[in-house]
């Protein structure tokens, strides 16, 4: 009498085992990509280069460089706006590279893992 449930030999069927191997390989590749992102730096400018911001691949602001002429005590708001614009652009570059890397793993299907990078 045949056993009910389970698979012959008690193991996973071939397709399931292959799927698990592929998932493990993808996980290793994603971990490698995350480590690689930690070492990258992304820079962006605003105000025609008057403000330059550098962020890491983990979205930490590393450096802010200001030209002297953009530092006007009577117009601090403009300087603040330029810094915000440069930071947002640099963060966008990080997101773009992360999304591009994730699309390699998801085959362009989207729905990656939010917060991974």
From TrEMBL:
Keyword S-adenosyl-L-methionine appears in the UniProt entry: no
Keywords: Cytoplasm, DNA-binding
Composition bias, Basic and acidic residues: 28-41
Localization per Swiss-Prot or TrEMBL: Cytoplasm, Nucleoid
Source domain of life: Bacteria
GO cellular-component term (any): cytosol
Signal peptide: none
Any GO MF annotation of the entry: DNA binding
Keyword NADP: no
Transmembrane segments: none
InterPro entries cross-referenced by the UniProt entry: YbaB-like_sf, YbaB/EbfC
Region feature (Disordered): 22-45
Assembly mode: Homodimer.
NCBIfam families in the record: DNA_YbaB_EbfC
Role according to the record: Binds to DNA and alters its conformation. May be involved in regulation of gene expression, nucleoid organization and DNA protection.
UniProt record similarity statement: Belongs to the YbaB/EbfC family.
Protein name: Nucleoid-associated protein G5A66_10635
